[in-house]
Design goal:
This protein is an all-beta fold. The protein contains no helices and 4 strands. The protein has a single domain, classed as Thiol Ester Dehydrase, Chain A (Roll), CATH 3.10.129. It has a 4-stranded antiparallel sheet, with no helix packed on it.
């Protein structure tokens, strides 16, 4: 439904990043997640918020 990303600094080519995702809300129909990406020095590279719809799988 929505993805909002703010890129705060670059990462050199070949550099490593670490991503962490934590839920704000895990509802039956809507989920909202917060994600942070840090570089090897622990500096914040990107912050994101993801809102998704939960759809029941048809069989």
């Amino acid at each position: 439904m929505e993805l909002n990303c703010s890129h705060l600094r670059g990462v050199p080519e070949g550099g490593m990043v670490i991503g962490t995702a934590k839920p704000y809300r895990l509802g039956k129909k809507i989920q909202v997640w917060n994600m942070e990406i840090h570089n090897e020095q622990g500096e914040l590279v990107c912050v994101s918020r993801l809102t998704i719809a939960v759809v029941e799988q048809k069989r």
